[in-house]
Amino acid sequence: MPLHTKKIGNDEVTAIGFGLMGLSAFYGDIESDEERFKVLDAAVEMGCTNWDSADIYGDSEELVGKW
After folding, report:
1. In whole angstroms, what is the distance from residue 11 CA to residue 5 CA?
2. Taking the CA of residue 64 as centre, how many other CA atoms within 13 Å lie in the half-sphere pointing to its CB?
3. pLDDT at position 44, please?
4. Cα–Cα distance for residue pair 29/15, rounded to 1 Å
5. Can you give the pLDDT at residue 31?
6. Euclidean distance between CA atoms 27 and 1, whole angstroms
7. 1, pLDDT greater than 90
8. Active site residue 27
9. For residues 24 and 59, is the Cβ–Cβ distance under 8 A?
10. Which of 40, 59, 58 is nearest to 50 (CA)?
11. Which N-terminal stretch is annotated as signal sequence (predicted)?
12. Could you tell me the residue range of the domain that residue 44 belongs to?
């Protein structure tokens, strides 16, 4: 079943964003980049196109940049 989307400007993105805080901070040990890339890959495979990140979420923005 496809994820519900919303139009933001000229783009269609998933209505619910994928929160990246848990991949980079606050919830225990941080996995390797390779393991965290697998999580991001799985989210894309499920149709996610909306990423929730912030500079206070550890290295989440850098992680997405490397991914």
Report:
1. 10
2. 18
3. 95
4. 29
5. 95
6. 29
7. no
8. no
9. yes
10. 40
11. none
12. 5-66
Residue of 50, 57, 58, 63 with catalytic role: 57
Left if phi > 0, otherwise alpha if psi is -120 to 50, otherwise beta: which for 33? Answer: alpha
Given a cut of 90, is residue 14 above it in pLDDT?
yes
Q: How many domains does the chain contain in total? A: 1
Residue with tokens 């196109």: 49
Q: Locate 33 and state its tokens.
A: 């980049």
List pLDDT tens digits, range 26-53.
999 999 999 999 999 999 999 999 999 9
pTM, full prediction: 0.85
pLDDT at 3: 87
Locate 14 and state its tokens: 């998933």
